[in-house]
Amino acid sequence: MARIVVLSDIHLSPTHGFFWENWCTARAFANAASADAVIVNGDLTINGADSDAEIAFAANALTSLRAPVMTLPGNHDVGDEPPGQDPNQIIDADRLARWGRFFESDRWTLDVGGWRLVGVNAQLLGSGLAREKAQDEWLDEKLEAVARRPIALFLHKPLFLELPTEDVVTPACIAPLARARLLDGLHRYDVRLIVSGHLHQHRDRMLAGLRHLWVPAVAFAAPQSHGGDSRCGITVLDFSSDSLQVTIERPRALVSHDLAAIKGHGRYQFLRDMPACPPSHEG
């Protein structure tokens, strides 16, 4: 049996400290969980796509996790794939280079409990960047190497909201053409689980032989419901040779912040009234 703790959407910042205590709670849980690894599944920051300081702050915070840490970027870290939520924050070479200055990679593999876990940069899917093609080739190689082993894929964004045949382009999930290309490749292997964050809610469904697990956020509750449980939480995955147990933990100190309420004083007041969150602070 191998245990993996998944922390998603932690949204750390040296100046925007609303979610720091939730991070401290999640960190304490992960450090007490006897985990074989901790996966941080994207959106480590609030505005890391345009800030060295935010990426550096998040990278420093993760050093306090005791288990090996596997990180993946989200749209708040390296920008979005087009068309994106913000046309001024589309993923590009400079944003990828910023991530690379603080993290070893934006993709990885991890073999645990008889499974191969594979993490990919969701923001590259449909980006048209040369890095997207390189990731596609890398993914095929890593899956081919373990064709007879069960595989779990981790990425920041879900592949779709309701059905894999959806044709609407939305920043909530992977774009249709990129999704179809990815699913076509996955069907050649024993991929059993796809784990995503981004939507800040927990949902667990089986479709066409694939288990799609949306994991809850650490930072704040889902601002928009997509049929899942919007409360904050921590995901624990226990892998054995041919099975998987999923547990969603919600420690009492983990607050399901309402983002709309936090912003209630108006945008500019919100930006001014940030709780302090220095990198050296250990809550």
Q: Write down the Rg.
A: 18 Å
Q: With helices defined by DSSP (H or I, 4 residues minimum), what is the helix count?
A: 8
Instruction: Calculate the mean pLDDT score and round it.
Output: 92
Query: Strand portion, in percent?
Result: 15-25%
Instruction: Return the structural class.
Output: alpha/beta
Q: Shape, please?
A: globular
CATH architecture: 4-Layer Sandwich
CATH superfamily heading: Metallo-dependent phosphatases
Description:
This protein is globular. It has one domain: Purple Acid Phosphatase, chain A, domain 2. 26% of the residues lie in helices and 21% in strands. It has helices spanning 20-32, 52-62, 75-78, 93-102, 130-144, 176-186, 259-262, 267-272; strands at residues 2-7, 37-41, 69-72, 108-112, 115-119, 151-154, 191-196, 203-207, 210-214, 234-240, 243-249. It has 283 residues and is an alpha/beta fold. The protein contains eight helices and eleven strands. The chain has a six-stranded mixed beta sheet with strand order 4-5-6-7-9-8, with helices on one face.
